[in-house]
Write a structure and sequence with these properties.
Number of helices: 0
Distance between the termini: 26 Å
Strand content: 25-35%
Largest sheet: 3 strands, antiparallel
Order of helices and strands: EEEEE
Helix content: under 10%
Number of domains: 1
């Protein structure tokens, strides 16, 4: 599965995409993104990686 940043206003979500369906995860990890890893999804350029539901950005 590929995990990538969502386009939420707060940027505090990730989405898992397996090629057929996607699932939202509520948190981003504090790990940085590899900005060289970009994909086009639903007309939006998104970064790949750096997503984890580890609670790093809990409200």
């Amino acid at each position: 599965m590929t995990c990538f940043d969502g386009k939420a206003k707060t940027s505090r979500e990730c989405q898992l995409f397996d090629g057929e369906s996607q699932t939202r995860i509520e948190h981003l990890t504090s790990r940085g993104h590899d900005w060289a890893d970009l994909v086009l999804h639903e007309g939006h350029l998104v970064t790949v990686g750096g997503c984890d539901n580890d609670g790093a950005f809990e409200e």
